[in-house]
Amino acid sequence: MAQQLYPSDLKCGRISCQDVVMPRVSRRVQDRRQAICVTGEIRQGDAFDLIEQLPEKSVDLILTSPPYWGLRSYGLKARSDVLEQWKGAGHKTWDAPGYFWYRDAGGVLGLEPYPDWYVDHLVEFFNRARRPLKPTGNVWVNLGDTYFGRWSSIRDGGRQGYKGERLRRRTPAGGYLHDKQLLLIPARFAIAMQEAGWILRNDLIWAKPKVMPRPETDRLRLSHEHWLHFVQRQARGRPKYYYDMDGTEEGALDVVVCPAEPGNDGHTATFPRALIRPRILSSCPVAGLVLDPFCGTGRAVAEALSLQRRGMGFELSRVHAVTARRIMKEMLSKVGGEVLKE
After folding, report:
1. Distance (Å, rounded) from C-alpha 192 to C-alpha 198?
2. Is residue 136 part of a domain?
3. Kind of pairing, strands 310-315 and 133-143?
4. Residue 290 lies inside a defined structural domain of this protein
5. Alpha-carbon distance 161 to 96, whole Å?
6. Tens of pLDDT along 90-121?
7. Position 86 in a domain
8. What number of other Cβ atoms are within 10 A of residue 53's Cβ?
9. Which of 51, 195, 208, 269 has its CA 20 to 30 Å from the CA of residue 164?
10. 31: Cβ contacts below 8 Å, ≥ 6 apart
11. pTM (2 decimals)?
């Protein structure tokens, strides 16, 4: 018997109310809900390396929330002299190095000295993902914004400005990088993806009804994040890709009110199931492959399995990869699926 898809504890709402609003399931999907070989796999390592291991045109949906710029270390160690190394090699500071140079110099994704480097590295990854992504595939990327400060607060967990242990890192100012500046990183990433040839179909706003208090008295609190939906260009004509409107939230609006959910095993940056499910139902066919290349503790992978899709996750942190495998196995035991690789 198929697992119940819409548990009552997952609350997600339209902008006009706080009622429980779950994605609709089309009759087409219901009719196809039969015995399907559901498989799951978590690979530990760098997504930039692991994406090259996937077969060509094998992924139906990339659904992910990469590390945000300048907020968390996730227990990963980054060298603080990467910029000095880059300048010492004779390069201009604003000319971003490729990701592999940056990594070899001791850098970690999300802890680049400049947000422009970070955006370039994200686009570099998704360009690498073109090969394994099916021509009809979808990409959903969850990104939040942040403010610039010459002295940044980097935490292992939690958010910028909250209590807890932190690393103070000096970030060079100049140009649009000025203290108290909202950086518009999701917009910069979206535009960079467009310039790289991707088609932006939606900028879904995740509005959070409750956020933690902030000490600032001269601005409003950030209470939303972005879910950016990309598809690929076709050789001729308009883009053609899989999409089932019946899988979206009621009303199919691009603003969704949804409470945040607590993370797993110390991982605080976890997107809520109520936002993941409509993206999977609408953007991946039954039995299709959902890939989260920055999977954290594997919530998107587990949700894909619960919806009779195949799930795969990449995770750089060994600690979080262990948690992701455990959560994946627990879900596979419920749906009668199979672990592809230990």
Report:
1. 9
2. yes
3. unpaired
4. no
5. 27
6. 999 889 999 999 999 999 999 999 999 999 99
7. yes
8. 10
9. 208
10. none
11. 0.85
Q: How far apart are CA 308 and CA 326, in angstroms?
A: 18
Inter-residue contact 223 to 275 (CB < 8 Å) = no
Q: What is the CATH number of the domain that holds 117?
A: 3.40.50.150
Quote the tokens at residue 280.
Answer: 């999977």
Distance CA 275, CA 272 (A): 6
Two tokens, residue 14: 């339209």
What does the alpha-carbon distance between residue 252 and residue 23 come to, in Å, rounded to a whole number? 9
Question: What is the distance in angstroms between the CA of the first residue and the CA of the last residue of the chain?
Answer: 27
Distances (CA, A) of 123 to 76, 164, 286: 22, 32, 28
DSSP string, 207-252: E-S-----S-SSSPPP-EEEEEEEEEPPSSSS------GGGS-TT-
Q: Of all residues in the chain, what percent are helix, strand and coil, respectively (each to 5)?
A: 25, 20, 50
Token digits of residue 22: 């779950």
Residue type, 159: R
Domain around 250: 27-196+206-226+237-284+296-308+315-321
Tell whether 327 is covered by a domain: no
Q: How many Cα atoms occupy the beta-carbon half-sphere of 335 within 13 Å?
A: 32
- The total domain count for the chain is 1
